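Quick one:
INPUT:
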């Protein structure tokens, strides 16, 4: 066979093309975040990081960061608790196979379609308020209330993505040896002690994966929030991703929009770094 010294370089070319296609727009966005670039005002002009200063000093920016973190913490926590609980019921209950088919139905809907469906149900005259009034309770503003809009969006997210946690948790539960649970039961451990001493520790690798996927998705959530509230009422549901959209697309302030997205990228990378370290520590234990 004839030597082909150029073959390795040719094989690397597709990977280099993909790398350039990813890095170029990313680095361009980082550069824009340090400029006062507006579409209707000419070329980008370096402003010394004023966009980041405004983001962390102004109430609008700090509010968006707070909403982003609050949304992610609440949604991921509730989804993990509900998902593991439902997974245990489906794994050990008598009708697990039947309900397993039903519980994944929300995952079959695109998030935008599911959000639109919930938006209709949560209107002032929607079916949810009708059910509340049928049992003697007053209807709520839900997506139109300053205090209730964010929690309403969280409920929609939990309804859509809890089945994802259930599926992964079920896979993790099936890997827990039955002999360990039986041995602990023989030693006198009840269901609660059994769960916290055996099941939960063995679910840690799966939990890390769940938190990584859902945590990053929740930090950069856009479609559900914008479909239902567009960041309102006022700015009650405006997270970093929605703020970047409003700055960049509506106000044509690409510099401020990219600063918000870079901060969001940093948050996602911090979360993934912490979880990777936890995974390595758990694997080495």
């Amino acid at each position: 066979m004839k030597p082909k010294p150029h073959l390795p370089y040719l094989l690397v070319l597709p990977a280099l093309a993909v790398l350039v296609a990813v890095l170029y727009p990313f680095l361009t966005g980082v550069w824009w975040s340090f400029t006062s670039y507006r579409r209707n005002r000419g070329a980008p002009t370096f402003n010394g990081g004023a966009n980041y200063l405004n983001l962390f000093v102004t109430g609008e920016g700090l509010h968006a960061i707070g909403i982003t973190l609050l949304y992610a913490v609440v949604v991921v926590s509730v989804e993990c608790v509900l998902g593991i609980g439902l997974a245990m019921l489906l794994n050990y209950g008598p009708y697990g196979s039947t309900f397993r088919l039903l519980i994944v139905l929300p995952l079959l809907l695109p998030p935008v379609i599911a959000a639109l469906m919930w938006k209709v149900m949560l209107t002032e005259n929607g079916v949810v308020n009708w059910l509340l009034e049928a049992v003697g309770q007053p209807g709520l503003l839900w997506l139109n209330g300053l205090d209730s809009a964010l929690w309403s969006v969280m409920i929609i997210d939990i309804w859509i993505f809890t089945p994802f946690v259930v599926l992964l948790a079920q896979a993790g539960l099936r890997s827990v040896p039955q002999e360990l649970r039986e041995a602990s039961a023989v030693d006198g451990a009840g269901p609660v002690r059994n769960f916290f001493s055996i099941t939960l520790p063995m679910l840690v690798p799966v939990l890390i994966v769940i938190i990584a996927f859902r945590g990053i998705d929740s930090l950069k959530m856009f479609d559900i929030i914008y479909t239902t509230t567009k960041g309102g009422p006022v700015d009650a549901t405006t997270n970093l991703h929605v703020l970047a959209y409003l700055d960049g697309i509506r106000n044509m302030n690409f510099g401020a929009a990219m600063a918000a997205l870079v901060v969001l990228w940093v948050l996602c990378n911090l979360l993934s770094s912490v979880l990777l370290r936890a995974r390595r520590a758990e694997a080495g234990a």
